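so my prof wants the structure for this chain in the tokens format not the other one, which i didnt know existed until like an hour ago. anyway here's the sequence
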Amino acid sequence: MNEEDRRWKGLAEPPTLFIQTVADLERRCASGDDYELLGIAALLRKLLLDPPLLMGVNGELRLPIKFHVPKEHKVDPATTFYSAMDAFHPDLLAKDPRSRFVNRDAFLKVLVAHVGGQKVTVKDIITFEANMKGGVHLGEPRTDAQRALSWSSNKVNMKGFTFSLYHLRLIGLVVLNALRPLRDALAEGEKPLTNC
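here's what i got, hopefully its the right format
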């Protein structure tokens, strides 16, 4: 039994777990409820960060996973506040000829905002909502990016949501679009988890 097999021993088969996780992400992204949206952070962490479920299930298929993101923004370091806002929305990305496709590592580094001189990336939004706001844990901000997100989430309301939660939902939509081809390929040979 190899190391990857040992990691999953006793758990749901990785392809089935991936399919169910993507289905949960899709359901939560369609919700308007703060708690449901907060759960996106845990799912994105599972899929993209620690260790990424995405990498485990795509090993044999090796499908190119590309995330559709807005054009790269150059923000003056003296800028007090900048937000990509709806630029991450898949409907707008589809119409923007300057948008681009990037791999997972580049996606996590894409600039989402600039708050009080601090750059905030896709990864910062995911980890802030997961580790500070309760998506996985409740905690106090420890990094400059987390402090910037804490400040902006307390001060900036975006269409009825906190600053970071609003962006988390849009990031979730981008991830959904990137992972659908892999989900569909895996679903051809998988049976969904049944209720216990």
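also thought this was worth mentioning. The chain has one domain: 3-187.
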